[in-house]
Amino acid sequence: MINQWLKIIHKTFYPPNCLVCGGPGRDDLDLCVPCAASLPYNRFCCRLCAVRLPDQPGADLCGKCSLKKPHYDSAYSMFEYLEPVRYLIRSLKFNSNYASARLLGLLMAEHLRSVDAPLPELIIPVPLHPNRFKQRGFNQSIELARPISNTFGIPISLSVCIRRRDTAPQVGLISAQRRKNVKNAFATTRPVVKKHVAIFDDVITTGCTVNEIARRLRQSGAEIIDVWSIARASLTG
């Protein structure tokens, strides 16, 4: 009862405002109905890596996954990495806009409710190297995962997987360079007791980072590995 009254008071004095257009939000989300309808939902995608596929019946794997499956079992990316989702993610990552993390995390939780698949036992955000964390002051993947963790009661692990090398930024690198950049960049600190885990990242581009993490988690005992991300870039993106 107390929590309900606190929610009513907060909504009365701090009504939600759309982070895209600035208008009134809907329900408890900082997003209006028209802007929600205009978001670039990732509707036709590869069932393994979530990259966009042509809008045609029967296509469920991209060419890359048809030739070689990744180390993880499935990927769920709610959006394509296009505006205004790109703006919301960048406002969190580079301007510490935690309201964007809350909005995108809640939208992702709604999306996961609609997916007919078992939920994992553990969420593992893609770790930052301590040097990068010190520079930024936070890990955007952790902040985005918090609303999902709270919604489903799935714990977040910040220690089972660590980044042991301070790798160069992936931006601007081609796929082969990205794979080399993250090779052996991650390590597990102990055996993975939870058999079904989800790796969480803000954006998947080529998938090299999450694939390398999945490889290490698989070696440490994980049996089912999902990859969750807010957005998925195109094959050329």
Q: Kindly state the percentage of residues in helix.
A: 25-40%
Instruction: Label the structural class.
Output: alpha/beta
Tell me what portion of residues adopts beta-strand conformation.
5-15%
End-to-end span in angstroms? 48 Å
Largest sheet: 4 strands, parallel
**Radius of gyration using CA atoms only:** 18 Å
Quickly count the helices: 9
Give the ordered list of helices and strands. HHHEHHEHHEHEEHE
Shape: globular
Report the mean per-residue pLDDT as an integer: 89
Give the number of DSSP strands. 6
Q: What are the segments in which pLDDT stays under 50 over at least 5 consecutive residues? A: 1-10
Strand sequence of the main sheet, in spatial order?
1-6-5-2
Can you offer a commentary on this structure?
The strands form 2 sheets. A 4-stranded parallel β-sheet has the order 1-6-5-2, with helices on both faces. Strands 3-4 form a two-stranded antiparallel sheet. It is globular. The model is unreliable at 1-10 (pLDDT under 50). Helix 4 (85-95) crosses helix 5 and helix 5 (98-113) packs across helix 7 (140-152). With 237 residues, it is α/β, with parallel strands linked by helices. The chain has 9 helices and 6 strands.
